[in-house]
């Protein structure tokens, strides 16, 4: 019975991976089903709960969650804060994946399903952009997924782009030409879809991640990657893509970049008055008092920056715990990279770099509690934790 339950949980993880970029509803259905089966497996087979939650980030994550909950309970808008706490359940994805992917074969199935799903979204993003932006002439069109907005699409296509690039590099390194071609085509489709979301923070996260991957896998790949980036930049010089990217460096104009500078300034003022946090969903109530007079947007639900947002809602202690999570994760992944080899080592490298891309993207977006994007982050980093926890190599 235990083996059958674990098989069903694996199917849930595979199906989550496939639908994660396609449909948040279907993805969450398979995620929740996986959690319920995990609960049944734990009770029926008397699995050790402490052992299941013993990971490289368990301590800092527990500290962060305690602070997060306390700030919600004692924050400005207590009712809204407590309701918003339901989002923390998405972190369970990390532990679900870490406990139930116990072989390289299961990890391959999960990653391939994930890449196939992300490729479908890339195709959809390309087709809709051609139709609405270039045929119908809607200059403000930004590609989205089948569910979620362009910011969500940018966030998860960024992680999918890094993941697919890593698998491509791994197959190239292992001289698996046929598979390399397929992964390269998926990478091109996913990355083109990412470009058409026009989310600059996600572009930067993807570029940073791919450069780091190339550097780790083979210095020759790094040289080729840099050359390709230069060539693509030249080709896109006078396009909407280049104008969108360059607008980041013109904060004096009335652009979204200037709006973010205004909201970050307001966020620092809020932090000064609330060093121990306002609670996870109180910003709408507090922000108008601190709004910059030059800002166009009257209110903000979040501050488009993980570090500042966490500091404002969870205070300085919450920010320290948040950074502690990533530091622990990175040290554990680096140690595991040194202690493993072959396919498993490559998966840990990919998860490590995805976490860096996610963190970089977080300088421009509050993605840490963005359900669809954050759930995918915990899913992909859970792959490396599965390699560490279950010694799948």
Structure description:
α7 (104-135) packs across α9, α8 runs antiparallel to α16 (342-361) and α16 runs antiparallel to α17. This protein is an all-alpha fold and 393 residues long. It has one domain. The protein has 17 helices and no strands. The protein has helices at 2-19, 24-44, 49-52, 58-73, 78-84, 92-100, 104-135, 150-173, 177-195, 200-217, 219-235, 240-246, 256-273, 283-290, 306-339, 342-361, 371-390. The model has no long low-confidence stretch (mean pLDDT 91). The protein is globular and about 55 Å long.
Give descriptors for this structure.
single chain, 393 residues
List the helices and strands and how they pair.
Blueprint: H1 2-19, H2 24-44, H3 49-52, H4 58-73, H5 78-84, H6 92-100, H7 104-135, H8 150-173, H9 177-195, H10 200-217, H11 219-235, H12 240-246, H13 256-273, H14 283-290, H15 306-339, H16 342-361, H17 371-390
Helix pairs in contact: 1-2, 1-7, 4-5, 4-15, 6-17, 7-8, 7-9, 8-9, 8-10, 8-16, 8-17, 10-11, 10-16, 13-15, 15-16, 16-17
Report how far the terminal alpha carbons are from each other.
26 Å
Based on CA atoms alone, the radius of gyration comes out at: 21 Å
Shape: globular
Derived structural class: mainly alpha
* Multimerization status: single chain
Instruction: Estimate the mean pLDDT confidence.
Output: 91
Q: Give a short account of the largest sheet.
A: none
Poorly predicted tracts of residues: none
Q: Determine the number of helices (DSSP H or I, runs of at least 4 residues).
A: 17
Number of domains: 1
Series of secondary-structure elements, N-terminal to C-terminal: HHHHHHHHHHHHHHHHH
Helical percent range?
over 70%
Q: Strand percentage, roughly?
A: under 5%
Number of strands: 0
């Amino acid at each position: 019975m235990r083996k059958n339950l674990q098989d069903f949980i694996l199917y849930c993880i595979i199906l989550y991976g496939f639908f994660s970029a396609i449909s948040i509803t279907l993805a969450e259905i398979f995620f929740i089903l996986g959690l319920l089966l995990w609960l049944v497996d734990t009770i029926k087979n008397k699995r050790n709960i402490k052992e299941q939650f013993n990971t490289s980030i368990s301590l800092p994550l527990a500290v962060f969650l305690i602070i997060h909950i306390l700030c919600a309970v004692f924050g400005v808008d207590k009712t809204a804060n407590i309701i918003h706490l339901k989002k923390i359940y998405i972190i369970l994805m990390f532990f679900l994946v870490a406990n139930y992917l116990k072989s390289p074969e299961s990890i391959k199935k999960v990653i391939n399903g994930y890449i196939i799903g992300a490729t479908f979204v890339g195709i959809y993003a390309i087709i809709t952009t051609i139709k609405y932006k270039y045929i119908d002439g809607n200059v403000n069109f930004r590609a989205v997924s089948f569910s979620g907005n362009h910011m969500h699409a940018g966030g998860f296509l960024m992680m999918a782009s890094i993941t697919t690039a890593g698998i491509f590099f791994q197959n190239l390194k292992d001289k698996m030409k046929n598979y390399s071609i397929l992964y390269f085509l998926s990478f091109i489709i996913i990355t083109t879809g990412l470009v058409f979301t026009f989310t600059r923070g996600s572009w930067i996260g993807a570029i940073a991640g791919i450069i780091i991957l190339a550097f780790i896998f083979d210095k020759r790949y790094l040289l080729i990657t840099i050359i390709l980036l230069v060539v693509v930049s030249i080709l896109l010089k006078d396009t909407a893509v280049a104008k969108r990217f360059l607008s980041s460096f013109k904060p004096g104009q009335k652009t979204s970049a200037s709006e973010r500078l205004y909201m970050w300034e307001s966020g620092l003022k809020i932090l000064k008055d609330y060093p121990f946090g306002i609670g996870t969903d109180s910003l709408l109530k507090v922000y108008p008092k601190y709004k910059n007079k030059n800002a166009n947007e009257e209110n903000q639900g979040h501050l488009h920056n993980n570090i500042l947002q966490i500091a404002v809602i969870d205070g300085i202690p919450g920010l320290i715990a948040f950074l502690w999570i990533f530091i622990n994760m990175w040290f554990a992944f680096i140690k595991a990279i040194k202690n493993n080899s072959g396919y498993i080592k490559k998966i840990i490298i990919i998860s490590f770099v995805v976490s860096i891309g996610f963190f970089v993207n977080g300088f421009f977006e509050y993605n840490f509690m963005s359900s669809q994007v954050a759930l995918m982050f915990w899913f992909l980093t859970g792959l490396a934790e599965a390699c560490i926890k279950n010694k799948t190599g």
